[in-house]
Amino acid sequence: MNLLQVPPPMVPKIRFDTDTSNFDAEFTGLPPTDLECSEFGGDRDTFRGFSFCASDRRSSIDTKPAPTQAPDQIVDNIANLVLHRTRSMSRRGSIDLLQEDKEDMIN
After folding, report:
1. What are phi and psi of 45, to 5 degrees?
2. Which of 49, 53, 56, 72 could join 37 in a cystine, given CB atoms 3.0 to 4.6 angstroms apart?
């Protein structure tokens, strides 16, 4: 924990490249929306594979600077987050993890 290296409580299993079974239907059921980006006028090769939209999209994001925290407080916050996330894992994820642990113990 001193190095802030905490293993993830769950690693989702993905069956194929477009597998969305780990996302809630609340989000996967939303209709797609256009970002209404203007044509990029710069060197396309510089940013090959990336896209960018105007800064007006950032208006809904809270841009206040993060409060400064002591390293011990950061570690405590991460530990609490991991604990909370572990407790809130889905039943299916918990069963998968238990099965993996069982297989690891056998092998």
Report:
1. -70, -30
2. 53
